[in-house]
């Protein structure tokens, strides 16, 4: 007999019938990204439904949404389990992210407004002062996404957010690693912000792509070493 899932670690939101699947997806997503539900853990629909006091229908909807985000996979005869990405998959997603973020930077930099620059600088200051990996990830996204918003490309931003969601648990690892090299991280962010302030589209795009790819290389190296040790 298998042990029950660690569902007691998940904070219980107020759920209504209309948005039950949204609440469940948010709660499970947070628990997976935070590492409360480990890789390979079965996500049993009956236990989740009982925990959230709902039927299995919104649970299935929530799990399918998390599958689309790359956090859950369905295995024959086992059902849904917390997914693990190979380093090859992570690397490919990071390559795509570098291309899309570079394009967003290129489109946004010439149109950047003083208000956008001020907000991005504020997020960067908070990022420098923060000590929580969860908040590092949030502030990192807010900083970059704010710089891209003057591109006025909502579909591009939706795709970037989807990519970020797929990679968030690994991005937290990356940011924790990079905080061991905080001067380098801060210098890269400051250089990106400066390129936007100068409305230099080419520099903003190149610096953004390099920032994503260099960080990705650090992450992949760490994951390969970590997984090799764990074998």
UniProtKB/TrEMBL annotation:
SUPFAM superfamilies: GntR ligand-binding domain-like, Winged helix' DNA-binding domain. InterPro entries: GntR_C, TF_FadR/GntR_C, Tscrpt_reg_HTH_GntR, WH-like_DNA-bd_sf, WH_DNA-bd_sf. GO terms for molecular function: DNA binding; DNA-binding transcription factor activity. Residues 18-85 form the HTH gntR-type domain. Keywords: DNA-binding, Transcription, Transcription regulation. It holds the Pfam family GntR. PANTHER family: TRANSCRIPTIONAL REGULATOR, GNTR FAMILY, TRANSCRIPTIONAL REGULATORY PROTEIN. This is Glc operon transcriptional activator. It comes from mine drainage metagenome. The gene is glcC_3.
